[in-house]
Amino acid sequence: MNDAANDSCDDDPSPEVLRQIAADLPRAAVGRLSLYHRELHRVLAGGTTSINSREMGKLVDVSPAVVRRDLSSLGSVGRRGVGYDVADLADRIGMLLGSGVRWKVILVGVGSLGDALLRYRGFDQLGFHLAVAFDIDPAKIGRKLGGIRVADFNMLEGVCASIQPDLGILAVPVDAAPEVASKLVGVGVTGILNFTPMTIKLPSSVAVINVDLARELQRLAFAVHANR
Ligand SMILES: NC(=O)c1ccc[n+]([C@@H]2O[C@H](COP(=O)([O-])OP(=O)(O)OC[C@H]3O[C@@H](n4cnc5c(N)ncnc54)[C@H](O)[C@@H]3O)[C@@H](O)[C@H]2O)c1
Q: Which segments constitute the CoA-binding domain (predicted)?
């Protein structure tokens, strides 16, 4: 069967519809879409303008059928016999994942982890603008890291009144996590990327993604162990 011949869908959803579709997608599919998005930008930068589901599948190590199923929610992104337009597909996946929008992000806790995140250059190109960071340590307040100002956490409300952040990155010690998280919600943050090794309880209207690097290492060790 010709993969390119199947790389076609019929409808063309609006950004609002795409966002609703995204909300209903299984987590695994969202994870794969994020990988497609990254790979599409990579091949686009290398000059590739068209791609079929077999090639896409190879890039992220899934079957062409899985690629077609994942992309079927995006509307008419494929053309029979040609495949997908790389730029168009990347745009639509970006829209579906919310990175077509510009998100204002604040970070709390400028320690070894927060410092590294502030210096990372990759957030902006995906639409995540790190507006300001916060800490309570006077030695850090007032400094600039990666071009981003470190403000006094005690001034959170005043600073955020003008910024109106959408998302918060939590990189404080675990003991401080619950209080800091609830203050972030108080200034209007509706999504938190939580690096602390603690499950924080927040209103259901606030999305929380926990990034537990130690647990990921455990999963990796288990996978290596199982392969032996
Ligand atoms: N460093 C890593 O590789 C790593 C990996 C995984 C998870 N984590 C988790 O990420 C969090 C941060 O780790 P780290 O190594 O950067 O810690 P760190 O101790 O180096 O930095 C914590 C920072 O938070 C600030 N802080 C403390 N209380 C605060 C408050 N109430 N409001 C604002 N700022 C406050 C401190 O002044 C400090 O600058 C921890 O919960 C840790 O368990 C870290």
A: 98-199
Residue of the CA atom closest to atom 20 of ligand 1: 111
| Closest C-alpha to ligand 1, atom 33 | 135
Local confidence band at 17 (pLDDT 50, 70, 90 cut-offs): confident
pLDDT tens track for 30-80: 889 989 998 998 998 888 889 999 999 999 999 999 999 888 877 666 666
Smallest CA-to-CA distance from 208 within 153, 180, 170 is with 170
Question: What domains can be seen in the chain, in order of their start residue?
Answer: 3-97 (1.10.10.10), 103-216 (3.40.50.720)
Rounded Cα distance between 9 and 13, Å, is 11
pTM metric for this prediction: 0.75
> What are the tens digits of pLDDT across the range 145-167?
999 999 999 999 999 999 999 99
User: Ligand 1 centre from 170 Cα, in Å?
Assistant: 8
Kind plus residue range of the DSSP H or E element containing 149: strand 148-152
Nearest CA to ligand 1 atom 3: 113
- Atom of ligand 1 lying closest to residue 114 CA: 16
